[in-house]
Design goal:
single chain; alpha+beta; globular; Cupin_8; Cupin-like domain-containing protein; JmjC_dom
């Protein structure tokens, strides 16, 4: 089952122009050749060995990385085991140089185990790499991470931050779905996940239409792109993304950010608290709380506060860091009762 939609492509954006464009985007974009001038991209284009040789001198921190490995029969799919009592991979702490040498060792082996170093903070583990491969994305304090591995298939999941993912080595296939497809992607547990985020249980390489009948509907909204070295993709907050590393040596550098102050809480906390407090209420009460959430959260406007003197708005008005701290303290006390 192949998606028919394609991620919108924007062309002619030089790295120095990105900061003026990206902060206004709200839909996915592919930016061809955005980081083609990076030294890392140039080295990896020569060969995997050149790419590894470029990375090794930046491994000065001495800290081991978390390497995820799965047997060859997993075919790169980092996922649950057959009965969802655990996972089909293991994690271990190893020096990055060992990971890189192992990737070269298995480079030409079609039956290689899956090796995957995920979301490793650049400045902590590879100091100097981001300065040597700089990119101004026009947002404050983005978190830059690197992903290194061989062929991999990462189940469709979503992240709260916005994401700019830049391919530095190898090819990637990216399949995106808008947030409202959550009901058609057959998403697994919220609190028992392969890597921290709930994932679609559908194997995109062999979807089971009997077990996952709504997936065909999701595919009607899918957007796909294949990215090569130097290309980048912008993934907005909460867009579902299925990521495939297509080659025997893949490197991705991504930037995460949220356009809200750091003192604001994580929306997932609100979702989990709502499951605790609202989901299992009688139907009539759930509908009443549905109206409350619309009024105070999702459709808050002049009708919410217009009749209240401004000095008395309290939580109905704009939050600041002090009010947020007070609200968090109140919630903590209530949850501890």
């Amino acid at each position: 089952m192949q998606p028919t939609g394609h991620i919108e492509e924007v062309h002619g954006i030089a790295p120095g122009q990105l900061a003026a464009r990206l902060p206004g985007w709200t839909t996915p974009k592919v930016i061809r050749g955005l980081v083609s001038g990076w030294p890392l991209v140039s080295a990896a284009r020569e060969s995997a060995a050149h790419g590894v040789a470029y990375l090794k001198p930046f491994d000065r921190s001495g800290m081991p990385v978390t390497a995820t490995t799965a047997p060859p029969q997993a075919r790169g799919r980092v996922f649950y085991n057959e009965d969802m009592t655990g996972f089909n991979f293991r994690r271990e702490q190893v020096p990055l140089k060992v990971v890189l040498d192992t990737l070269l060792k298995y480079h030409d082996n079609p039956d290689a185990p899956s090796i995957y170093v995920a979301s490793t903070t650049l400045d902590s583990f590879l100091p100097g790499l981001s300065a040597d491969n700089a990119l101004d994305i026009g947002v404050a304090d983005p978190l830059a991470s690197i992903w290194i591995g061989n062929r991999s298939r990462i189940a469709a999941h979503q992240d709260v931050p916005d994401n700019l993912a830049c391919v530095a080595a190898g090819r990637r296939r990216v399949t995106l779905f808008p947030p409202d497809q959550v009901g058609n992607l057959h998403v697994g547990p919220l609190d028992f996940t392969p890597a921290g985020q709930a994932v679609s249980l559908v194997d995109f390489a062999a979807p089971d239409p009997v077990r996952f009948p709504r997936f065909a509907e999701a595919m009607q909204y899918a957007q796909v792109a294949e990215l090569g070295p130097g290309d980048a993709v912008y993934i907005p907050s909460l867009w579902w993304h299925h990521m495939e590393g297509l080659d025997a040596f893949n490197v991705l550098v991504n930037y995460w950010w949220r356009p809200v102050p750091a003192w604001r809480d994580a929306p997932m906390n609100a979702l989990m608290l709502s499951i605790l407090a609202v989901r299992d209420l009688p139907a009539a009460q759930r509908e009443a709380w549905h109206a409350m959430f619309r009024h105070y959260v999702f459709e808050a406007d002049e009708r919410t506060t217009g009749h209240v003197p401004e000095h008395a708005h309290g939580l109905l008005g704009p939050l600041d860091e002090t009010m947020a701290a007070q609200l968090r303290a109140t919630l903590r006390k209530r949850l501890e009762r």
